[in-house]
Amino acid sequence: MRFMVIVKADKNSEAGVMPSTELLTAMGKFNEEMVKAGVMLAGEGLHPSSKGARIKYYGKDRTVTKGPFGETSDLVAGFWLIQVQSRDEAIEWMKRAPFDGSEIEIRQVFDAEDFGEALTPELREQETRLRAQAANK
User: Fold this and answer.
1) Could you read off the pLDDT of 68-122 as tens digits, one per residue?
2) Fewer CB atoms < 10 Å away: N or C end of the chain?
3) pLDDT digits over 39-75, tens only?
4) H/E element holding 21?
5) How deeply is 130 buried, as exposed, middle or buried, from its count of CB atoms within 10 A (0-12, 13-18, 19+)?
6) Is pTM beyond 0.85 here?
7) How far, in whole angstroms, is CA 128 from its chain's centroid?
8) d(C-alpha 21, C-alpha 37), whole Å
9) Which residues of 68-109 form beta strands (DSSP E)?
């Protein structure tokens, strides 16, 4: 099972305050443990929402709003993509993350099987082909 671990933003991340060397060192060690265990697929920090944009879709209309965005607790400061056997295992890994005063959210990523018959053989083949193409870039 794949899970996205969403690191919630806070006033410091939204202000562009970079993590300390100590936190970066601890995070590097934690990431290395996950990679060695075959758990971590990806992980990145994100720039503040002031450098972002949102697009709302209404039929054929598109509305673009440039950041920053309010409600810091609803924003994302970074993420991991991990692969583990269960939600409980994801929780156990993330309890070890070197955070203090932060909040994360853990969400399971859909797999092809989750879509049932709606994912036709043709759509499944397209998905497989696109994933392979993206991995080769």
Assistant:
1) 998 877 899 999 999 999 999 999 999 999 999 889 999 999 998 899 999 999 9
2) C
3) 999 999 999 999 999 999 999 999 999 999 988 778 9
4) helix 21-36
5) exposed
6) yes
7) 21
8) 24
9) 76-83, 104-108
